[in-house]
Amino acid sequence: MTRRLLVVDDEQMVCSAMRRTLGKVGYEVISAESGEDALPRLGPGAFGCLITDLRMPGMGGHGLIRECRQRHPTLPIIVMSAHGDMDDVIECLREGVADYIRKPWSDSEVRATVARHFRTDAAPAAAATPIPQAPPHAAHASAEPPAAPSSPPSSPPSVPDPSVQERRSALLRKIATGDLALPTSPAVTLAMRSVASSDHASASSLRELAERDVGLAAQIIKVANGPLYAGLGRVSSLQAAIARIGFRELSHLAEALMAQRFFDFSEKRWQELLCSVWRQSWRRAVIARFLAEHAKVGITPERAYLSALFCDLGVPLLCRALQKHAPELDQAEAVAFVEASHAAFGATVAAHWSLPPECALVCGRHHFEPGAPDEVPMPLRLVWAAESLAVSHFGSATHPDMPSPDSQLLPLSHATVATVMELVDEYVEQHGWALDDAVGGPITDSPPPATHRAAAP
User: What is the pLDDT of residues 320-351, one digit of tens each?
Assistant: First the structure.
């Protein structure tokens, strides 16, 4: 028997497209035109997943989600949303939906999202056509681009553990009720980025913003008087420190310092994991920034940096949540839950903070998904390429090998990759000392630089 899922959308073209896309990999897609039409069909165990649009005549997506959460609390729900519906998406995530798909979507995105959440224990299992699924931070051993299989693989994919889904839904409900508060929006840092990139940026305007965050202001002065600027004399005013560092570099520094605060957690059981993820996040962000500058892929270096820096936002959020709400989990179970669930939670935080749309996209899908690269949005390809280079160049305790970035993900020559990584090494050596870890010391293992290079605003 094939596996069954329900698609709810008042546009028949959408239902037909879902039927074609998922039918090719072994799903039976049943469609409904509204929430009223869908509810009677949702008997116990009838479907392994529900995909619904939000805006429909009659009972819309929000009403359907609320009813489903009451009647079928463990049924995974995936929301389809247009680009302008992020407020609706945030509300749905708080109501306990498992994931969301942006319209227009690609075949690979839909298949990967369904594969992550489909419950085989709640619907008839497939006899011979399982869906290929990329596990968290999946490795693709071959250096050749992954090809779409001409026939379904013979071994079944890994499927979400029902207990993981139930715990994930419980935590999302705690977000909805306020028992699990999302981190406060880094308003000062995001405002500094906006001002620094404008044509009217000035040291005084950036100073006024930085003064709202005493800790950030102190760090800016510390960096301006650090080894990178040795020989330039000591500065004591925040405005002079900002002028010395330079507007653009100040924005990157503020974002990195803010992200580091988020990853800083005093609970010992999580320190090693968070330290490792933080190091990888910053290195990946630096690589993404230089890739965007040199590969000319249509993404600004600033947005590439931000997307790569924050794509693991869900990890520290879940570590804190589990410490408070599920302390009985042993470490192996807790880490497995974080690995399986942090992408959806990170996307929730990114949307809550009103980060650029590509940041929420990358947060929700930053695990590598084998498939045709042309079907993958460019921000994801860029971050995957940066992840691959970070793993191969620096090594990582939390991410296995990724595909070769120049052959699969971006149109990069070996010369471009070499140039980018030279710039990355220089940047990490010069700036990593300023981002001291609570656990592992500076980002770079090299001593602080003895030379200085003044940055132009």
Answer: 888 888 888 888 888 888 888 888 788 877 77
Band (19; pLDDT cuts 50, 70, 90)? very high
CA 262/CA 316 separation, integer angstroms: 7
Choice between 286 and 148, residue whose per-residue pLDDT is larger: 286
Sheet of strand 3-8, all strands in order from the earlier edge strand to the far edge = 27-32, 3-8, 50-53, 77-81, 99-102
Cα 43 to Cα 439: distance, rounded to the nearest angstrom: 50
The SS3 assignment for 427 reads helix
- Helix spans in 178-300 (H): 187-196, 203-210, 214-224, 238-245, 247-263, 268-295
- Is-contact 406 384, C-beta < 8 A? no
How far apart are alpha carbons 262 and 345 in whole angstroms?
A: 14
Residues 165 and 206 in one domain: no
Retrieve residue 340's tokens. 């399986």
- The pLDDT tens digits of the residues spanning 438-454 come to 444 445 554 444 444 44
Residue 326 lies in a domain: yes
Domain that holds residue 117: 3-124+159-177
Mean pLDDT of the chain: 74
Half-sphere exposure for 294 (CA within 13 Å, toward CB): 21
The total of structural domains in the chain comes to: 2
pLDDT for res 437? 47
**Residue 73, preceding peptide bond in cis (omega within 30° of 0):** no
Residues 54, 84 within the same domain: yes
